[in-house]
Amino acid sequence: MEKRIACQKCVYYFVTWEAGKPHGCKAYGFKSQLIPSISVKRASGEDCKLFSLKNIKQ
Asked: Which superkingdom is the protein from (predicted)?
């Protein structure tokens, strides 16, 4: 089974509010229609190497 990266839990993930490109990644510097980790995997063939878990206060 393939490991899935939850971009929404990453410090570099952001919502763009653009209809055609709602997902963004500050680490790689792009906006996409797909979740950034999927875009990175398709473009490079490798999993995202820059994932950094958000420090979420509860």
From this structure: Bacteria
Residue 3: pLDDT band (50, 70, 90) is confident
- What is the distance between the alpha carbons of residues 9 and 45, in angstroms, rounded to a whole number? 22
pTM score above 0.90: no
Residues contacting 5, CB < 8 A, separation 6+: 37, 47, 48, 51
- SS3 annotation, 10-28: ECCEEECCCCCCCEEECCC
Which H/E stretch holds residue 37? helix 36-44
Tokens of 35: 């979740």
